[in-house]
Amino acid sequence: MDLLVVNHAEVAALLPMAECMEVMAETLAALAAGDAQLPLRTVLLLPDGRSAFASMPAAIARPAALGLKAVTVFPGNAGTPRDTHQGAVLLFDAGHGGLLAVLDASAVTAIRTAAVSGVATRLLARPDADELALVGAGVQAMTHLEAVHLARPLRRVRVWSRSAARAREFARRAAERFGVEVTPAASVAAAVDGAAIVCTVTASREPVLHGAWLAPGAHVNAVGASVRGARELDAAAVRDARVYVDSRESARHEAGDLLVPQHDGVIGDDHVVGELGELLLGRVAGRRTPEERTLFKSLGLAVEDVAAARHVYARAAAGGGGTRVAFAHGAPAADPPG
Known about the structure:
single chain, Rossmann fold, 338 residues, alpha/beta, 16 strands, eight-stranded parallel sheet, 11 helices, eight-stranded mixed sheet, ornithine cyclodeaminase, domain 1, 2 domains
């Protein structure tokens, strides 16, 4: 049986952001409807106390997909030629169990994470939101700019990084790519001042964004912290917002941005309004007023990786892409899974 190997550049070509946003919306709705199996990720913390190795399996019933992401997270790679997230997404035949494809996990993660934030922005940001603040200037900052720009056409973007040089370089490249005004900011407070949409995409384990800095009616996508001991937002930013998550169960175990203020008694167990999938299905309400702040706490889910891999595999089967290698005994699948 042939195995499809899809490298970083090919994943990016086969998984356009606009298409990925639609796939993510469909997948999150399926998860909320009970049409997916998603155990908590298994995370092995490495001796440096910051880096980790994670295993993330998932199965989706409709359209059928089965797979696993194996990924390393090395925050120390930020600002170097190596990605902070590296690994592979393995896609299996949901009908017969054979391994169908291996995809570069860095590209899948960069695109699908931002696509989910784009869906959240489309659902929760004010209709007139046209100014974005990016807290962080790495890979996720660029893909988040792309996704948010699709959700809400932007007039202006401000970006902050601990490295002023990185912020300046990001602003230059982003302005050229998207044709919008992109300005480096001297501080996080200056970046988010008056911004209607804020994305935190850092590797910080301590709060970098304070609620006191946020404008009324702002929508925040909190993305960078994905373990219970790390957070990018202070308690006030969480307390004063209407909060949504990608998975309630994952948030209860892994979302430091929510668990720390809950432990400190700042918010209660019921502070999360619902999952994005529940919002898509109309089971929970979204933004209620223009002045209300909304917050999407992203953790990243294996169902998102598997659904993205299925989409890439189907596009490659239909139009070419990737490299096919002989791998296992048996007949190839006649059609893409599902």
